[in-house]
Amino acid sequence: MHLAIAGSVATDHLQTFAGKFSDSLVPDQLDKLAVSFLVEDLDVRRGGCAANIAFGLGSLGLHPTLVAAVGRDFDLGYREWLQEAGVDTSTVLVHPTLHTALCTITTDEAHAQIVTFYPGAMAQAREIDIAALHAQQPIDLLLIGPDDPDGMLRHTRTARELGIPFAADPSQQLAWAGGELIRELIDGAAYLFSNDYEAALIAKKTGWSDADIAERVGVRVVTHGKDGCVVIESDGTRHQIGAIEGVTAVDPTGVGDSFRAGFMAGIAADLSLDRAAQVGCTIAASVVETIGTQEYLLERSAFLDRVRSTYGDEACDEIGEALSISHDAVVKSG
């Protein structure tokens, strides 16, 4: 299955605040908000939703195509890093003067986050022609993640026009997007990814009920952090999947992206929805235990041991047979 991952590529500046943001917020004074948080550290890492998802797919033995707009600094190590992970970066659009997007993420002790994002070259994503990519190599499933809004809209419309199955993952763009835009981004999606808060935001802004969304989306995948995820089919069938047990959370950044990578890897391997979600939860456990979105290491036996301990022998056997991750496929951190 040819998977194409469209969305942001960015450099992440990760910071930690030794306290709770909520302690500095006065609910009835938020219109006059002026706060400053003294952080303890700064960790600069590779990131961006599309790059994170593509990296995760590569770590699971797949070879996705990255569909993104980047700056000239992308060729100062980031491209090689992704290629070594198994990601096809040959179609990435490189802007000659702008910088790759920059994301600053500050996390408090309760794992709440404040994020600022500079798009940079990402705004050029609207120039990428999915139709041309599809003509060059037919796309079996296109994930459309957070990106330049016009680019997301163009990709979605092209996918619908050409009949390319697509997964809608608007996530970080939901906060500012209006209902009309959100409706167009998710209408006709084979899969709709969100966390529980984003699912509520989609419903509120679109004005669509669960039944309305079910009529327009094939499968809804809603993550619930430490409580796992819920997968809802269009006929209302629900699959509740628990999270991996015994996880020591260190940094939540990129966990949702890695879950999407695992889920899509499962779909590409023709696993059931339950098994695909279990793969997603298992790789997400590795990410939340690691600082950085692409710094985890996957090793086959340890990965499958985690599957077995939480989901049982049958799940372990089916996933182990479907996924090609091995010692040779492990990507080295650096």
Q: How would you describe what is shown here?
A:
- The chain is an alpha/beta fold.
- The protein is built from eleven helices and 14 strands.
- The protein has helices at 49-59, 78-84, 130-136, 149-162, 179-186, 196-206, 210-216, 255-268, 273-288, 300-311, 313-322; strands at residues 3-6, 10-16, 42-47, 65-67, 69-70, 93-94, 101-107, 113-118, 141-144, 166-168, 191-195, 219-223, 229-233, 238-241.
- The strands form three sheets. An eight-stranded mixed sheet has the order 4-1-9-10-11-12-13-14, with helices on both faces. It has a four-stranded mixed sheet with strand order 3-2-7-8.
List keywords for this structure.
single chain, 334 residues, alpha/beta, eight-stranded mixed β-sheet, 14 strands
Helix share bin: 25-40%
Q: Rg, please?
A: 19 Å
Please indicate the percent range of residues in DSSP E strands (runs of 2 or more).
15-25%
Tell me the series of helices and strands, N- to C-terminal.
EEEHEEHEEEHEHEHEHHEEEHHHH
Instruction: Give me the number of helical elements.
Output: 11
Question: Could you give the count of β-strands?
Answer: 14
